[in-house]
Prior knowledge:
heterodimer, A: 441 residues, alpha/beta, Rossmann fold, 7-stranded mixed β-sheet, disordered N terminus, B: 358 residues, 2 domains, 5-stranded mixed β-sheet, 14 strands, Transketolase_C (chain B), branched-chain 2-oxo acid dehydrogenase activity (chain B)
Amino acid sequence: MSLTRRTTTSLLKPLTTTTSLLTRRPYSTDNSTPITVETSVPFTGHNCDPPSRSITTTPSELMTFFTDMSLMRRMEIAADSLYKSKLIRGFCHLYDGQEAVCIGMESAITKKDCIITAYRDHCIFLGRGGSLLESFAELMGRQDGCSRGKGGSMHFYKKDAGFYGGHGIVGAQVPLGCGLAFAQKYKKDESVTFAMYGDGAANQGQLFEALNMAALWDLPAILVCENNHFIVEGVEFVDVRERDPIERIRKLILAHDLATEKELKDIEKQARKQVDEAIAKAKESPMPDESELFTNVYRKGYGVEVDGMDAFAVKQACKFAKEHALKNGPIILEMDTYRYHGHSMSDPGSTYRTRDEISGVRQERDPIERIRKLILAHDLATEKELKDIEKLARKQVDEAIAKAKESPMPDESELFTNVYRKGYGVESFGADRKELRATLP
Amino acid sequence: MATNLKKLGSILTKQASLVRRLSSSPSLASDGANGKSINLYTAINQALQIALDSDPRSYVFGEDVGFGGVFRCTTGLADQFGKHRVFNTPLCEQGIVGFGIGLAAMGNRAIAEIQFADYIFPAFDQIVNEAAKFRYRSGNEFNCGGLTVRAPYGAVGHGGHYHSQSPEAFFCHVPGIKVVIPRSPKEAKGLLLASIRDPNPVVFFEPKWLYRLAVEEVPEGDYTLPLSQAEVIREGSDITLVGWGAQLAVMEQACIDAEKEGISCELIDLRTLIPWDKETVEASVRKTGRLLISHEAPVTGGFGAEISASIVERCFLRLEAPVARVCGLDTPFPLVFEPFYMPTKNKILDAIKDTVNF
Lengths: 441, 358
């Protein structure tokens, strides 16, 4: 099929010449023939109508999704072995399994929109247009790294693409994201901030503080919870629905024959009626004046639950969220996703879940496999061509690592730079009282 | 669960040992007759076990402690005492400490763990404004003396920005809490039990570098070591060295090297940072006429500054040289430059010589 041929050749060529795939869209217009796909599962909306399940894409977008996710997957696997061979020090948190969240999000937004995330940041950086070399050099603490070797795994940044980084303390980045969103709203440039956090951070108080401020001031902030279901090392939580207090009492009443089911239903109906009457009355009550603006902020608890393993579902949700946030203020997206690796390199990730569970997800929900199947189903490339793309990703990763290894460590004077703004004086002390005044470059 | 947690601890400490050889702490500790040789995390585990066993109103909680904690300090406690006394909390430091204050205010012993000292800052408000001032502002009607907050602190060789900090000085500025840092397994067990039983809230920092590395004989039974009492762990006549926690092992190496050059160093473990034992340090400086303080935290505003100022006030006429401080640099804790940042043995040795030859 000639279309296929052209797709792959035009795709593969630029791959060999650049280490950053993601800023490129090397496709001819032939490849923009629309294809309609359906998201894996329906969205669940909270206080809002969820977006439609059907989404229009193009062959070129499908191929880009595949290529970019393959590259991300390969990068994380390579980082894993670099860490094990002690070339990466510090802490290292891998993203493989969650690629669809990053890819889908990027495809729905522009670089004017901001992203801020926690420490699982390598792929987000790549998604924003960062290069493999910058990533690996940063991971190994070298000068060519995106933070000049001073940040390491948890601290990737890319200001020119609106990536506000890589933050080490769980949940701390979310209030920052609200600050970004406020600045965006002030500028009126129709851009939004995606503040990403994990299900562990959802326990942090500052997350709620941030959400409250965002709602209070109608900030264009989208709080993206990447729910990978394992908080650091898998704290278990009880599903409260199973412990519904009313159900418990209902069972007791029935067991003791104190009332029939119908009588209990009648009581509930009565309760409903009373509530409705009260609501009707309350509606007649006048609105509070503006000074009471701060009293009821949760009226704006909008949210959408998304299959975070489906790049198109993510894309659709992010597009929806952006429109929503610009019009109505903050919204939460809960991405149901899965990380294949442990929480960090010190967690093998196999003690709180079974191997079967992981391989089950790989078989049924893997974000890359989903795209592969779509490509094959629409005859956009052959299996071999897709394999070639993966091989190429591997080659590019290997080349980037080799280059990164050649990059020197930061200069010793860098220990003292960037503590304060250049030229405003910094004093550091060496051994004993011998004062060492750092000369700022 | 057990394995992966174990791994984290072992990775941290094993790799640490590759980077820097520490003197094994037995030489630092007073003799631990009739005990087993155990490492620091096991000593902490024993102390917690005794605390739970000896007082049915004591509780241990924090992130992942139900599984044994990332450094294995709470291994087996949940099995032995049940999930209602040893339990996991959500990931919320401010909540953990606030909860502990409430629990302690009802007359219980609340032993909270913050996974890394670097993560203690969300709980700073609770510690400074709630825990420390509870007794004072209620005119002694309420207190949270049963509260002990444990947190691993300090460098491990490759921890980077957020797994290496030494935040003790922040807490030393807060009247109403005690700050305790042990140097070895035997010290850790006795000081932790004393902290748990002390009728004041205590912040207890554990040197994570030494969790596996430091091994010494530790008495098996229940014992406490006095708080606010420094210990002279090496006697000398030319200069007094004051430190705490993991840094003492480094300082002792410097003392040994200095001795080879004919300088006799007296080494003091402060053990409790507030309220601290000024008398022991003062008596030593009156003898030697010189003082050197060393800690991992940045030098400016570090607790060394307080010791220096107090001793200058008390011993001004006796001092023969300015007080020396060999500490971390005034930079954030660096990722690749940790060896430059740290107050190493050679830096201390240089400072000893400069001070003695002033």
